[in-house]
Design brief:
The protein has about 325 residues and is mainly beta. It has two helices and 27 strands. The chain starts with about 20 loop residues before the first strand and ends in a 13-residue tail after the last strand.
Length: about 325
């Protein structure tokens, strides 16, 4: 097919003047765009923008943040509040709530395995209604003790319940969605866990070992679109992969055009715009792209690629070239 690259404009560049700031989370809350990030050293910040171009810092977080917060990694909105998680390798990952004025620290659970400091990352933050009750689900990541999924209410008092603690070798659970009456959790080493009550979990048999390919480093993104569940892999050196299911049992491959998926490393994000499904793909190893004329191969693309599906989420075509001209971006 003919590649239809769309024009892109720079929304912002320069790290908000905060040095080596990387942005890893974003959402819209009360009509305002929020962006979270950090320098993975000793600085984390939460920014906001009314227009998507000009950003200011949420000063309430600056005064409430725990020493050691180095990245605002996950954001979710529920119960009229913005919840956000900060990585912290000194005291363990921290969870906050923001009501548009004040930022408050939410007490951590007493982990099933290991001390709080042993869980420095929150790898997923989502809210779901299960059994008629709205709950906030927080996935803590630990290379020492494995991942743990905890749930709590959306308002104080925050009473924590351990929802799931898989094998210690499953160090991370990176995304969660609600699909066809079940909660699905994307995990390390090519497993997707599923549960009808968010307490009793099983491996989605069809997805085990990354659909039997065994070289899937992890499932890192899940998304629901057009009555289908989509699952994207992160596969260092083997090419990112995207599949979908309508029933949670049978999975089918999505197709890509004008893109060499074997050079891509991870499906990193989903979005819906104009009624179509868009996905972002990390390309740490470079990606060849083809021009419309003679299918000639041009250049290397060391960075994120934006693709769009115009056939209902079955085939994806490239919508960006060469990382918008910034060759040093990798994801």
């Amino acid at each position: 097919s003919a590649m239809a690259v769309v024009p892109w404009d720079t929304a912002h560049i320069g790290g908000m003047g905060d040095g080596n700031m990387q942005f890893n989370s974003a959402t819209v809350y009360n009509g305002i765009y929020y962006l979270g990030g950090g320098d993975y050293s000793n600085q984390s910040k939460l920014f906001y923008s009314n227009n998507g171009f000009t950003y200011d810092t949420i000063t309430a977080y600056n005064s409430a943040r725990v020493v050691g917060d180095n990245n605002v990694a996950k954001i979710d909105t529920a119960a009229g509040k913005l919840f956000f998680a900060a990585d912290n390798t000194i005291y363990g990952a921290q969870l906050y709530e923001y009501d548009g004025i004040n930022v408050s620290l939410i007490p951590q659970p007493v982990f099933a395995q290991g001390a709080t400091v042993d869980f420095p990352y929150i790898s997923a933050l989502k809210h779901f209604k299960v059994g008629g009750t709205d709950s906030l689900f927080v996935c803590y990541e630990s290379n020492l003790n494995g991942a743990e999924i905890w749930k709590t209410s959306l308002n104080p008092p925050y009473n924590w319940t351990l929802a799931y603690a898989p094998a210690d070798t499953i160090s991370g659970i990176y995304d969660m969605v609600n699909f066809n009456g079940k909660i699905y959790a994307a995990a390390r080493y090519g497993f997707i866990f599923e549960s009808a009550d968010a307490m009793n979990w099983n491996v989605n048999a069809s997805s085990a070992n990354a659909w039997g390919t065994f070289n899937g480093d992890c499932f890192n993104r899940l998304f629901v679109f057009s009555n289908r569940l989509y699952a994207g892999t992160s596969r260092m050196g083997g090419g990112a992969e995207l599949r979908y299911t309508s029933d949670g049992i049978a999975w089918s491959n999505c197709n890509f055009t004008n893109i060499n998926t074997t050079s891509l490393s991870a499906i990193s994000g989903f979005s819906v715009a104009g009624g179509n499904l868009w996905i972002m793909i990390n390309g740490d190893y470079g990606s060849l792209y083809r021009t419309n004329a003679n299918n000639q191969t041009h250049g290397m693309s060391f960075g994120p690629v934006v693709t769009e599906s115009t056939d209902g989420g079955l085939t994806f075509d490239r919508r960006s070239v060469n990382n918008f001209g910034e060759f040093d971006n990798d994801g």
